[in-house]
Amino acid sequence: MRILCSNDDGIHARGLESLVKIARELSDDVWVVAPQEEQSGAARALTLAHPIRIRKYEDRRFSVTGTPSDAVLMGVNKILAEKKPDLILSGVNNGQNIAEDVTVSGTIAAAFQGMSMGVPSIAMSLARLSREKARWATPESHGAAIVRRLLAEGWPADVVVNVNFPDRDPDEVKEIEVTTQGHRDAVQLYAEERKDLRGGTYYWYGYTGDLSNPPEGTDLKAIYEGRISITPLHLALTHADSHAALAKALNGPAE
Predict the structure, then answer these.
(1) Span 23-77, pLDDT tens digits
(2) Could you give the strand order of the β-sheet that contains 29-35, starting from the edge strand earlier in sequence?
(3) Confidence of residue 204 (pLDDT cuts 50, 70, 90)
(4) Is the whole model's pTM more than 0.90, yes or no?
(5) Residue 46 burial (CB < 10 Å; 0-12/13-18/19+)?
(6) Peptide bond before 72: cis, by omega within 30 degrees of 0?
(7) According to a count of CB atoms within 10 Å of the terminal CB, is the N or C end of the chain lower?
């Protein structure tokens, strides 16, 4: 099995080391194609107005001057053009990708890019609720077994599997839960105003420590309570109820 590893934290990210460890438990044909620099929050952006350059570090390890989607595109269409991967793993992100995060996450975008090219894709992220340290041993201990179980079960071709590991040590993680995408009832993102050395104003995004109060069955609840969250995601964004109501009201002549 040929595995392509990518991420949004960049080619030198610690989480990519964990991802490669997981991949090498599954196969000896592991390739890395990742953004040259951190691309957190890039979502599904593509580099359309600048050239893309590929840098080779060693056999089967490359970086791309672009976004996570660029990295997967270059990985599948150029670097691995003679034989495309059988599986794409993205991550392990340094921080959870749950609830609204999934719409801006470059980690998940890399997996969606792989899925759109016909390659089964899994995104992996490690929660950092305490912000004290990243417990990389947790995905390294549980990741390969989860991927094996997912591959054995299978999932639809238009679905990406979003795996989030809780902010717990490996032996504290006792359960896996297949979840739905949640929604936070507390706004966490804020812009902090700062001054540079010349008196100019700039802003830096940050997150508050306020947790939401999510319902059972959501990715938020599972992560807050120390379970591994597995959420099947897809790109169909049409809201069925609104579609039906608006169609009833508006379908017909333009005037």
Answers:
(1) 999 999 999 999 999 888 889 999 999 999 999 999 999 999 999 999 999 999 9
(2) 54-58, 61-64, 29-35, 2-6, 87-94, 121-126, 160-165, 228-233, 176-178
(3) confident
(4) yes
(5) middle
(6) no
(7) C
